[in-house]
Amino acid sequence: MATTYTKGTIPPSFIALMAEVQNVVVLTGSGISAESGIPTFREAQTGLWAKYDPTELATPKAFRDNPKLVWDWYSWRRKLIAKASPNPGHLALAQLEDVFPSFQLITQNIDGLHARAGSKNIIELHGNIFRSKCSDQNHQVDYRVADDHVPPRCPLCQSLCRPDVIWFGEPLPQAALSESVEHAKNCDLFFSIGTSSVVQPAASLVDIAQRGGAIIIEINISSTVLTTLVDYSIRGESGIILPQLLSSISGGFSV
Ligand code: BV8
User: Is 126 tagged catalytic?
Assistant: First the structure.
């Protein structure tokens, strides 16, 4: 049964808990990038895109039916993300990587902000918006490739280029998924940060960690389907909570 902490209260018991853990796994979702100005996945997209449902656009069928619309949606998102910067939540996670003997970051996000914040151990479950590939042969293609088609065509096989991300209905990269499952199975502490825990199979990592005996901490501005199942649910912005956690851990003990 979760103990819920409202914003600004990192309980002293956390510090004692953090001093004992060896293997930490963090799963992030689009909520951790919200304070960088990037709309979360299920929030109404702004302006031009407000009328589209992301779960409808992020599909192979949408790309087959209207490749230009889907390509333009990703171009719009890529421009928005390129202008954004990692926020204190991303930066705190990058520093937490060095506090624990073993720390694995797993993200559902495609924005690349964890790497820009300095995190090194990152598994991107759903790909990366700054990588593109062709639809027929998965050739890696630079999305800026000079081509007056929209979407551009692959210079090698002429098939349409698409973002190198995992769409709904597409399998996750096998290596990334199995590595994430192994880390979840063997960790002592699992953070679920800024995710509604709806999208599968990413969301199942929490259950795998809990069955493996890990303590589960959720950080979110609102409750989720997980909240009643986790050990601790900290309510608040990850860009505020994570730096607090970092400073209370660094102040409380150093490994
Ligand atoms: C697959 C890339 C099978 C594209 C994304 C059971 C098992 C397996 C599959 C399924 C299943 N049930 C259903 C499925 C199908 C489907 C699925 O999960 N559907 C959902 C809608 C029910 N899953 C799939 O299709 C997956 N593939 O299963 O393939 C297969 C196997 C073999 C052969 C063929 C097929 C693929 C899923 C991946 C989809 N791609 N992204 C793109 O981004 O354009 S998912 C997308 O959702 C993003 O990656 C996003 O990160 C992710 C998860 O969403 P959230 O991050 O949680 O975002 P959301 O807006 O929901 O929530 C934000 C949260 O942040 C909120 O809770 C909010 O309160 C909080 N928040 C906001 N601000 C802050 C904050 N928290 C803290 N601080 C803040 N400041």
Answer: yes
